[in-house]
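One record is kept unedited as follows:
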Amino acid sequence: MFLRLKTKLASAQPVSPPSPGVKINNANFYRRTGWLNYLSQLSPARILVDLNNRETVGRNAMDCAALGIACVSTARTDMQSRLFPLTTLSDSWDIHGAYILCRRLLQDSAFYQRVVSYAAEAIQQYDIAPFRTRFGSLLARHPEVESPHGKCNL
């Protein structure tokens, strides 16, 4: 389901004009102007590098996994180590380590495929049906949980 999104986005027109990017030595840098535009810009990419130095949920890693793109990022983003363990940096200032991983991803197609295949499989647990199953299991283990409008049913 998720990987079909990449094909759809690659052929779609952006919702609004994309933000002007900056290109430096074959690397494109964009500012996000909206999620759908961002995904359209990201979809043709081969690698996303996110050297985040603060705690985040890891939206970039999730987007990359859904689009079949390798993501090099830090352990400070929650989803990175869950979806891309082979390309997760322990130090968010490790620019040289990021460079080495990017070079390996671009030169070693088997490694690249292993990285994106793992992410494509791992992201399935965050799809709607598996989430509902986990949530239902949580509610079953804690029947005292109620919504403001009464019992919470799925």
About this structure: Residues 11 and 72 are 25 Å apart (CA to CA).
